Amino acid sequence: MRLLEERIKEDGQVRPGNILKVDSFLNHQLDVSLLEQLGKEFFERFKDKGITRILTIEASGIALACLAAQYFKVPVVFAKKAKSKNLDGELYTSTVHSFTYGKDFTVTLSKKFLTKDDTVLLIDDFLAVGKAMRGLIDICGQAEANIAGIGIAIEKGFQSGGKELREMGFDVYSLAIIDEMDDEGNISFKEQ
Length: 192
Known about the structure:
Layout: H1 2-11, E1 13-15, E2 19-21, H2 32-46, E3 53-57, H3 62-72, E4 76-79, E5 91-98, E6 103-110, E7 119-127, H4 131-143, E8 146-156, H5 161-167, E9 172-181, E10 187-189
Parallel strand pairs: 3-4, 3-7, 7-8, 8-9
Antiparallel strand pairs: 1-2, 5-6, 9-10
Subunit structure: Homodimer.
GO molecular function: xanthine phosphoribosyltransferase activity
Keywords: Cytoplasm, Glycosyltransferase, Purine salvage, Transferase
């Protein structure tokens, strides 16, 4: 998606260790107009898949998932990274490794919000090595929910996550795929 690529080039910052900082518009401060357009793009791709739920992981994927959900007219559910006192009943759990934070999280989702009757679109802001997405896939497997597709705002195409998920048979749709980036701030995108 050319609009997102241009915004990454304009406002993104490359940090050492293959970190792309896009906090001025995607995952700290939110450009709601941009997110709405990204959500609409996911809708156009997956609108005929019978989506009943959008699933993401706390916290950066929530805004993007919500703006996509307004087009699908379905609820958003998200896996929580910390067990809070207000989570009750039976839970799905999975362990995910955060590339950004460099640590493991146990994510949880109440069983009442995801069932075998659901057709799910997974959405997240980034895809690098795919650990967070694998945690969501694991939760969908526990629920016996059908995964219709995976929507990603920014994929680091030079890392293994997207390739591995596609090889597993998932329909992964990334709006911007970074082919390479360097510590001088140069970013190139894969042609789609």
